[in-house]
């Protein structure tokens, strides 16, 4: 009985978390000093949602393991949270690389315009 209730609670919390993720406003367009906007790609948004869902899933599994005393579930939950952090780190690295590339391109354009 207690495990069934715990399972229903975990399911409810997972659905609620995904609902909150869906209702979160889209990140604002990035703004640089010259007020150019850089659109966020759908793939990047999907990766962020996947990472957030993995983190929530890990937290729920870890909490369920703590409630039931199942250390295996706690370890799996913590591993999912680490996986979510790695997913976010990969996206952050990609975004940083794109930002640097755009800045280098902008500087190159400015230099080319100055010479002409």
Structural class assignment: mainly alpha
Terminal CA distance reads: 78 Å
User: What about the largest sheet?
Assistant: 2 strands, antiparallel
Give me the oligomer status: single chain
Tally of helical runs: 3
Domains (count): 1
User: What percent of residues are in strands?
Assistant: under 5%
Q: Helix and strand string, N-terminal first?
A: HEEHH
Number of strands: 2
**What's the rounded overall pLDDT mean?**
75
Give start-end ranges of low-pLDDT stretches.
Answer: 28-37
User: Helicity range of the residues?
Assistant: over 70%
Compute the CA-based radius of gyration: 21 Å
Shape: elongated
Strand order of the largest sheet: 1-2
Describe this structure in words.
This protein is mainly α and 116 residues long. The protein has one domain. The protein has three helices and two strands. It has helices spanning 2-23, 42-68, 71-115; strands spanning 30-31, 37-38. The chain has a two-stranded antiparallel sheet with strand order 1-2. A hairpin with a 5-residue loop joins strand 1 and strand 2. Helix 1 runs antiparallel to helix 2 and helix 2 (42-68) runs antiparallel to helix 3 (71-115). The protein is elongated and about 75 Å long.
Question: Helices and strands in order, then pairings?
Answer:
Elements: H1 2-23, E1 30-31, E2 37-38, H2 42-68, H3 71-115
Antiparallel strand pairs: 1-2
A few lines on this structure:
With 116 residues, the protein is mostly helical.
């Amino acid at each position: 009985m207690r495990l069934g209730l715990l399972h229903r609670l975990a399911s409810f919390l997972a659905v609620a978390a995904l609902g909150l993720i869906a209702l979160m406003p889209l990140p604002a367009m990035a703004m640089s000093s010259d007020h150019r906007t850089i659109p966020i790609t759908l793939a990047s948004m999907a990766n962020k949602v996947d990472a957030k869902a993995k983190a929530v899933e890990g937290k729920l599994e870890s909490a369920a393991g703590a409630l039931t005393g199942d250390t295996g579930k706690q370890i799996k939950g913590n591993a999912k949270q680490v996986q979510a952090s790695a997913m976010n780190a990969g996206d952050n690295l990609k975004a940083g690389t794109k930002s640097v590339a755009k800045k280098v391109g902008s500087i190159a354009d400015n230099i080319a315009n100055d010479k002409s």
